[in-house]
């Protein structure tokens, strides 16, 4: 997965997903890769950043509108992955949606 996403000028939206996993892989990595690939093909998708250690994972996806986020939420393959996540992969998770009004980047 690429590093920091270079998003367009604001406003745009960020979906912040933080999670604590259950024990074991159980196909999680393969599904996560499929979801990134599928999301990247959705209308309004701007990019994704993700990091995980032993305890906590944080994924931030960027979208051009609330409508694009709603369409992604309703995607049938994404809904199936959400169901499996609740059933098998996540002990705890949170989902937050925020409007990005300002950003800055630094690059050497």
UniProtKB/TrEMBL annotation:
Pfam families noted in UniProt: ABM (PF03992)
Which residues are in the ABM domain? 32-83
Highest taxon, organism lineage: Bacteria
| Coiled-coil parts of chain | none
A GO MF label: monooxygenase activity
Q: Which UniProt keywords apply?
A: Monooxygenase, Oxidoreductase
What SUPFAM superfamilies does the entry give?
Answer: Dimeric alpha+beta barrel
The UniProt record lists the keyword Oxidoreductase? yes
Q: What is this protein called?
A: Antibiotic biosynthesis monooxygenase family protein
